[in-house]
Amino acid sequence: YAMLLSLIFLIILVAAIAGFVFRHEIKTNFDSNLNLALKDYNMTADQHNEAVDTIQRMLHCCGVQNYSDWEKTEYFSQRGIPRSCCKDQNDCSEEDLKDPNKAKLKVFVDVRLFFLVTSTMESKMSIVAGISFGVACFQV
């Protein structure tokens, strides 16, 4: 039993240290995965599209860095910026979303998704580390 608890303690300790040491790589991978999700965004309803739409709606953001990220996608050439970027769903037409100048007035432009998510993750890291340390100390 003591060996099992020691093993769990070491796993928690290694995970916490690895998360701290590799936090920059985590941010880089997160950025590249978000850009890939935008690039692969299409008109079919699948889990990846729903995830992008949900994140943009809930966090009131559009694109990875800003709404112009969508201009580099195939989806934009066909349909414009996704409706999930709209500030007001009732005041956001497809014609507005196809024109970047008009879209700028209709979509979220102030909040950058990547910055918002990474800053939230960084602010919660201390809580996660504290919980991990508390669990590890409780085991001892």
TrEMBL record:
Compartmental location: Membrane
Membrane-topology annotation of the record: Multi-pass membrane protein
Family annotation (Gene3D superfamilies): Tetraspanin
Top-level taxon in the UniProt lineage: Eukaryota
Keywords: Glycoprotein, Membrane, Signal, Transmembrane, Transmembrane helix
Signal peptide: 1-18
CC per GO annotation: plasma membrane
Pfam family of the protein (one): Tetraspanin
SUPFAM superfamilies: Tetraspanin
Family: Belongs to the tetraspanin (TM4SF) family.
PANTHER family documented for this protein: TETRASPANIN, TETRASPANIN-6
Protein name: Tetraspanin-6
Organism of provenance: Hylia prasina (green hylia)
Record lineage: Eukaryota, Metazoa, Chordata, Craniata, Vertebrata
UniProt gene name: Tspan6
